[in-house]
Amino acid sequence: MLRIAVPNKGTLSRPAAEMLREAGYRQRTDERDLVCRDESNDVEFFYLRPRDIATYVGSGDLDLGITGRDLLVDAGSPADELLDLDFAGASFRFAAAPATLTTVEQIAGRRVATSFPGVVNRYLAHNGIEAEVIRLDGAVENAVRLGVADVVADVVQTGATLRQAGLAVVGDPILTSSALLIGRDSVASAPVAQLVRRLQGVLVARRYVMLAYDVRADLLEQATALTPGIESPTVSPLHREGWVAVQAMVLRTDVHKIMDELYDLGARAILVTGIHNCRL
Ligand SMILES: Nc1ncnc2c1ncn2[C@@H]1O[C@H](COP(=O)(O)OP(=O)(O)OP(=O)(O)O)[C@@H](O)[C@H]1O
Ligand SMILES: O=P(O)(O)OC[C@H]1O[C@H](OP(=O)(O)OP(=O)(O)O)[C@H](O)[C@@H]1O
Ligand SMILES: [Mg+2]
User: Fold this and answer.
1) What is the atom index within ligand 1 of the atom nearest the CA of 88?
2) What confidence tens digit (pLDDT) does each residue in 185-217 have?
3) How far is the CA of 211 from the centre of ligand 3 (A)?
4) Residue 116 C-alpha to ligand 1 middle, in angstroms?
5) Whether 60 and 183 share a structural domain
6) In angstroms, what is the span from residue 24 Cα to ligand 1's centroid?
7) Of 78, 150, 183, 243, which has the fewest Cβ atoms less than 10 A away?
8) How far is the CA of 21 from the centre of ligand 1 (A)?
9) Is residue 203 part of a domain?
């Protein structure tokens, strides 16, 4: 039975469970449950603190887990990134009061507050910067105005927390994070490959829609240049002489622009439908 770690609370928890449900797995119904067995898929889910998940997977005590890239790096775990799950996107950055420092090099000799000491120490060592890292549990943006630190290093999503604390980002992002499926590359197995394929199916279904339209056969080349699909578009004859029906997957983010262009070209009966799931 495959054993998988799922975040039990916080930002990652709800979207992780939602994605697993969409991939056909049973999930807990009570937020306080710590384990959920999905007998029909031969999988057992363990609900754990997101920060601990890389440790369980890295040690091999659990086969797979869902966690953030920043949390994986912070844990210094030997677990591998198997799939980017495309939610909980954020960057991890330094920030300070605007007048105090403007470049990463100026962090040398300063105090850096963070709840991700693993990420920060690694970055500082890699860039030859010596600074004092102060580990805090959270709300680190307060550390500057309270005099505990000169710089913070934390997750930035909208930037609202930094602005409220009167801080400005310093330098480029230390890393770009999102939710990941992690595991041990060395223990690739058929059940793991199947779970990865199921999650890939959910990702594709979220990113793409199915576009169908009718177009004059002499415009087919121009139309399919706009909708090349993933492999190749499906083209079927129409009862109406000289016209064909085309079906192709297109990126959800591009669909409106493509529909406008198809309409301008002369395509009609342009229909968009959602994809529930797929195996490509
Ligand atoms: N606005 C956000 N706040 C916090 N974490 C975020 C945000 N957006 C994305 N993330 C990502 O979510 C993960 C952190 O989730 P986690 O559940 O550990 O913390 P949390 O949601 O801040 O909960 P808490 O701080 O209450 O423990 C990280 O990978 C982080 O990059
Ligand atoms: O850029 P924003 O959209 O403002 O989001 C980022 C903020 O959200 C998180 O804090 P959280 O609410 O998790 O509190 P914590 O610091 O106690 O973890 C994170 O640590 C930042 O402080
Ligand atoms: Mg937090």
Assistant:
1) 9
2) 776 799 999 999 999 999 999 999 999 999 999
3) 40
4) 11
5) yes
6) 25
7) 78
8) 21
9) no
Residue 280 lies in a domain: no
Closest to 150 measured CA to CA, from 214, 99, 74, 80: 99
| Nearest-ligand number for the alpha carbon of 167 | 2
What is the pLDDT at residue 266? Answer: 98
Domain span at residue 160 reads 90-176
Using CA atoms, how far apart are residues 126 and 180, in angstroms rounded to an integer?
24
Domain count, the chain: 3
| Closest of 265, 224, 268, 263 to residue 247, by C-alpha | 224
% of the chain with per-residue pLDDT over 70: 100
Which 3 state secondary structure label does DSSP give 178?
coil
Taking the CA of 163 as reference, the closest ligand is: 2
Q: Judging by beta carbons within 10 Å of its beta carbon (0-12, 13-18, 19+), is residue 186 exposed, middle or buried?
A: exposed
pLDDT of 104 strictly over 80: yes
